[in-house]
Amino acid sequence: MSANWGNNIELSIFGESHGPAIGIVIGGLPAGMKLDMDEIRWFMKRRAPGQNQMSTPRKEKDEFQIVSGIRDGVTTGAPLCAMIENTNTHSKDYSELKVNMRPGHSDYPAYIKYHGYNDVRGGGHFSGRLTAPIVLAGSIARQILLEKGIIIGAHMKQIHHIQDCSFPVDIDDELLKQLSHQMYPTLDDQVFIKMQEEIEKARMSQDSVGGIIECAIAHVPAGIGNPFFDSVESHLSPLLFSIPAVKSVSFGSESIHQMYGHEANDAYYYQGDQVKTKTNHNGGITGGITNGMPIVFQVGIKPTPSISQIQETINVQTHTNTQIQVKGRHDPCIVPRAVVVVESMAALGVLDLLG
Ligand SMILES: Cc1cc2nc3c(=O)[nH]c(=O)nc-3n(C[C@H](O)[C@H](O)[C@H](O)COP(=O)(O)O)c2cc1C
Ligand SMILES: C=C(O[C@@H]1CC(C(=O)O)=C[C@@H](OP(=O)(O)O)[C@H]1O)C(=O)O
């Protein structure tokens, strides 16, 4: 298995959901950066499981230990290694899943690729739990980016059929800061209650729902990125697609393909010395290169695969068709906990792009 990424920074994640610990090694961080540990803890809390009925009941505090790369809270420039213990595993829930493959999860392809040696407990190395170290690394990246004036924020754009508004063209820094300090950010504050009801409805029917997260990265200067293979979209997408359960990534206005050219083209204008566009349907990127407007993208997340309804599947030991009823503790919807994961991946991607 390979779990490494990055050109200018280097990320390597490790661990399994039911192993002793999970963690990350980050190389290429600047030396002399004072880390705000309380802010890192806040972002970790936004993702942590077990906080209410919208989440898996598995309670994990997600306290972290930084074992290298900082001294007296300041980065030394050496690779930073951070670890998070797994403290609340119920591995018995997974005893049947070694042979009965969960539809929608990694079990069957992983069984084939790793000849049955892969750890299925809690999703093993495929687990959404591995996004905890990603949030940790992303929180550090955000602090470095903020020194350059770059601010990131995201909101729950859609849960099942319930929709929030889209980002306005002029995204206020205060709005992004406010979003990233909310546990479950939406632009329309009336919509969250409906989203919550939709998740609860799915949970009560032993089912799950998915949705869309929309993210904005403000103040990335114009001129970052390359044409073709290393366009900004090409650079951010692998990180976003590596979040478990992400099935789509799109940049700019979701409806751009339904527009006429005169609607899709973002008209330029000068505001003092600053070049801006009147609309931002291209999401701050044209020709693979940033144009100075906020980078805006949407990430589509599928419904959680592990649901407790009876489903059709196969038993790979007996080679028979069978049925499965998944036990254990699962998120009825991944979206609320994944907002900060998307923000974190965005931060890591932009930090790597800036070099
Ligand atoms: C934050 C987060 C939490 C998740 N929680 C669960 C869960 O409780 N149960 C589950 O079956 N999948 C959960 N997933 C999704 C699975 O890990 C994912 O669907 C699986 O690894 C298969 O990968 P794929 O959906 O990308 O194909 C979660 C993902 C994330 C990002
Ligand atoms: C623990 C987390 O989420 C887990 C992600 C997950 C999966 O299959 O992705 C399966 C569940 O694991 P378990 O059966 O051990 O409770 C979730 O609880 C977390 O995100 O921190």
From TrEMBL:
Cellular-component GO terms for this entry: cytosol
BP term (GO), one: chorismate biosynthetic process
Cofactor(s), by name: FMNH2
Entry keyword annotation includes Ubl conjugation: no
Highest taxon listed in the record's lineage: Bacteria
GO MF, any single term: chorismate synthase activity
Catalytic activity line of the entry: 5-O-(1-carboxyvinyl)-3-phosphoshikimate = chorismate + phosphate
EC number: 4.2.3.5
Gene3D superfamilies linked to this entry: Chorismate synthase AroC
Residues reported in the UniProt entry to bind NADP(+): R47
Biochemical pathway: Metabolic intermediate biosynthesis; chorismate biosynthesis; chorismate from D-erythrose 4-phosphate and phosphoenolpyruvate: step 7/7
Keywords: Amino-acid biosynthesis, Aromatic amino acid biosynthesis, FAD, Flavoprotein, FMN, Lyase, NADP
Binding site for FMN: H125, F126, S127, G287, K302, P303, T304, P305, S306, R329
Subunit organization: Homotetramer.
Function as written in the Swiss-Prot or TrEMBL entry: This reaction introduces a second double bond into the aromatic ring system.
NCBIfam families xref list: aroC, PRK05382.1
Protein name: Chorismate synthase
Organism of origin: Massilimicrobiota timonensis
